[in-house]
């Protein structure tokens, strides 16, 4: 085990500060490359998961309001319309920072829909069976400012 690896194992924060300083000084040959790769890879996965989770939560709120809009039309309100617009904009802002994640959202739509139905049942006076078992909205429709289901 090298001295750098021991340093990494014994005092992670000190190791991290040292690696940053080496990078700033362009002393690349002294970097602990293997551990840096592991840490950057872990950081990227954690960051991706955090952003995806935030988008899934926003999608769930958006879908919930679209479901209520569709299945409880007599209670449509300015508040519901505003929430739909707000969620679309917040999703767009999250995707602006990480546009590559948009292509992973189709896979997460099932998760978002499940959460949305639970929330819609809680908030709307509907029986659970009134909502479709699967999401009938495409990702394109969900993000389209003009789309409101009838």
Task: Note down, in words, how this protein is organized.
This protein is mainly alpha-helical and 150 residues long. It folds into 2 domains: 1-31, no CATH class; 44-143, no CATH class. It contains 6 helices and no strands. It has helices at 3-10, 12-24, 33-71, 78-97, 105-123, 139-143. Helix 1 packs across helix 2 and helix 3 (33-71) crosses helix 5. The longest helix has 39 residues, at 33-71. The termini are far apart. The model has no long low-confidence stretch (mean pLDDT 91).
The tally of domains stands at 2
> What is the global morphology?
elongated
What's the multimeric state?
single chain
Task: Please work out how many helical segments DSSP would assign.
Answer: 6
- Largest sheet composition: none
How big is the Rg? 22 Å
The tally of strands reads 0
Model regions low in confidence, pLDDT < 50 over at least 5 residues: none
Helix/strand-derived class?
mainly alpha
List the helices and strands and how they pair.
Elements: H1 3-10, H2 12-24, H3 33-71, H4 78-97, H5 105-123, H6 139-143
Helix pairs in contact: 1-2, 3-4, 3-5
């Amino acid at each position: 085990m090298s001295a750098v690896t021991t340093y990494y194992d014994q005092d992670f924060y000190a190791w991290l500060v040292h690696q940053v300083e080496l990078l700033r000084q362009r002393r690349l040959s002294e970097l602990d490359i293997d551990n840096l790769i592991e840490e950057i890879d872990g950081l990227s996965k954690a960051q991706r998961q955090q952003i995806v989770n935030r988008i899934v939560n926003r999608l769930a709120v958006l879908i919930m309001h679209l479901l209520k809009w569709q299945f409880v039309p007599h209670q449509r309100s300015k508040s519901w319309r505003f929430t739909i617009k707000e969620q679309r904009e917040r999703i767009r802002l999250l995707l602006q920072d990480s546009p590559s994640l948009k292509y992973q959202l189709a896979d997460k739509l099932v998760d978002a829909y499940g959460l949305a139905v639970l929330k819609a049942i809680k908030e709307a006076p509907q029986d659970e069976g009134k909502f479709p078992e699967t999401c009938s909205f495409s990702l394109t429709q969900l993000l389209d400012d003009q789309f409101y289901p009838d």
